[in-house]
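Consider the tokenized backbone below.
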């Protein structure tokens, strides 16, 4: 058995093979097969010398199946994995070879791949997708800094450490290569996620990975790839078409998310978003990616908030508390220790309550009794914490007169909370949840009214003009052939009655019922 501590070459890996045998690596017990491909199979294996049943994934490449091109790809893959160390890239622990196989020993990811995760859930909530995208973008940033293009980014090559609180890791660098400029080459990658320039021109650069990210983002949000086809010819025709990419009307995505999708899914690579624009995009928001640094930043900002609070600078303190929460939420997501996670949730509860009180006082609102009961509910519900974060951001945006951004945030947060209220079994919690939703619905309607009033003064972006707002209901009166608006409180009353009586209807169905009356 040979170990991977020497310089790689075709000769050192021994291309001359003996008759085929099943993979058998000294020191490991192979169990089930995790995946298979043209040149290799991946197995789950236990290390014999480990007292704690240390688990690994071992990629076994048959030497007899390798041609010169695939051998070169393998050498590049191993060299890349040797130099890359990143929390969101699968780590290569060692590589070995014998007379029949080359073995790449990697860390084991117990949560399967992103493709399976999407198929079992169909469509993922946007805030969930954003967390996933931040992790993928972080890995891509490191690769880009090393002039490495993955060339085969797809959900099947993105692994999850677990199903409960998954950490994503980019895997399978079999097609990866160093790209500093445009190259001419053969088809590389998986057709459904392959950039158009690879299929149509065979000339491409590193931006092919950005297209693949766009397809993955689309599939996470809508449950299918944008050019899903039954044959390669059908796929090729769709990709060659001049018809612009269209996003489905449901589920509705935020303006920031939609803008990113349009930027990534540009057929012409010159029109496609750049790497720098991608990494700095507000939806990617790498500044708030769950990481160890989030807690440090949160602590620093909240210290300033407490100081301003003591000085009586309530408005400034409220904003700083909100900024700190933006770091605390991903810090909680990142933390794996349950006890520490609970301590952080308690802290966030205190800061959110204080920010709410200060916000109400600074706005001369006498409703200080509204102290958020949702905060208590959020202690054991990360998705509620995400929604609360969006609500606080919405309030900040509204205070800065960024009305459209505020409205988008209100709509997404309220939709998430209404969905959660449908499945909540605790009667008291359900009532508290409904009370709080009603409060924020009123605030959202105030923002909607301001938006409507400012429509004549400031033209709205074309991308948002054709959309029908989620909280706007229009009824046609056949007798007079004119349109009149329903009172919005009637709409909200219908929604809450439906929720309270356990009618499991999607929000979009409710709008459809009312608008077609």
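A designed sequence for it:
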């Amino acid at each position: 058995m040979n170990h991977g501590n020497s310089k790689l070459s075709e000769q050192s890996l021994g291309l001359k093979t003996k008759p085929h045998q099943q993979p058998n690596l000294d020191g490991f017990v192979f169990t089930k097969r995790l995946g298979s491909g043209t040149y290799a199979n991946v197995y789950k294996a236990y290390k014999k010398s480990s007292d704690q049943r240390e688990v690994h994934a071992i990629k076994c490449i048959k030497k007899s199946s390798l041609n010169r091109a695939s051998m070169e790809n393998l050498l590049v893959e191993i060299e890349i994995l040797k130099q890359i160390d990143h929390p969101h890239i699968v780590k290569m622990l060692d590589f070995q070879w014998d007379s029949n196989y080359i073995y790449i020993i990697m860390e084991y990811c117990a949560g399967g791949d992103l493709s399976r995760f999407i198929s079992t859930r169909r469509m993922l909530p946007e805030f969930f997708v954003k967390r996933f995208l931040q992790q993928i973008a972080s890995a891509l940033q490191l690769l880009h800094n090393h002039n490495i293009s993955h060339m085969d980014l797809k959900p099947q090559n993105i692994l999850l450490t677990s199903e409960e609180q998954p950490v994503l890791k980019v895997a399978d660098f079999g097609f990866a290569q160093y790209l500093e400029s445009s190259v001419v080459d053969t088809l590389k990658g998986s057709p459904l996620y392959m950039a158009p320039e690879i299929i149509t021109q065979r000339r491409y650069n590193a931006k092919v990975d950005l297209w693949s990210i766009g397809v993955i983002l689309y599939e996470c949000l809508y449950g299918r790839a944008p050019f899903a086809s039954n044959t390669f010819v059908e796929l090729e025709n769709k990709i060659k078409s001049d018809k612009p990419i269209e996003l489905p009307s449901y589920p509705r995505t935020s303006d920031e998310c939609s803008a990113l999708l349009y930027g990534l899914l540009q057929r012409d690579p010159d029109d496609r978003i750049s790497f720098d624009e991608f990494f700095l995009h507000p939806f990617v928001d790498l500044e708030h990616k769950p990481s160890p640094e989030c807690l440090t930043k949160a602590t620093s900002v909240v210290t300033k908030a407490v100081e301003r609070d003591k000085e009586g600078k309530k408005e400034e303190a409220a904003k700083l508390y909100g900024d700190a929460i933006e770091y605390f939420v991903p810090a909680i997501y990142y933390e794996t220790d349950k006890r520490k996670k609970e301590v952080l949730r308690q802290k966030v509860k205190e800061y959110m309550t204080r920010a709410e009180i200060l916000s109400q006082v600074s706005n001369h609102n006498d409703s200080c009794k509204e102290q958020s009961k949702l905060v208590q509910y959020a202690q054991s519900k990360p998705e509620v914490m995400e929604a609360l974060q969006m609500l606080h951001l919405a309030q900040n945006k509204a205070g800065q007169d960024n009305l459209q951004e505020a409205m988008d945030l209100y709509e997404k947060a309220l939709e998430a909370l209404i969905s959660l209220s449908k499945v909540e079994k605790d009667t008291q919690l359900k009532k508290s949840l409904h009370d709080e939703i009603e409060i924020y619905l009123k605030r959202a309607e105030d923002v909607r009214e301001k938006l409507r009033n400012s429509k004549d003064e400031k033209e709205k972006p074309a991308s948002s003009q054709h959309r029908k707002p989620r909280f706007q209901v229009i009824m046609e009166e056949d007798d007079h052939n004119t349109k009149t608006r329903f009172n919005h409180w009637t709409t909200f009353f219908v929604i809450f009655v439906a929720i309270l009586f356990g009618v499991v209807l999607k929000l979009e169905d409710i709008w459809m019922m009312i608008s077609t009356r």
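The two ends are 75 Å apart (CA to CA).
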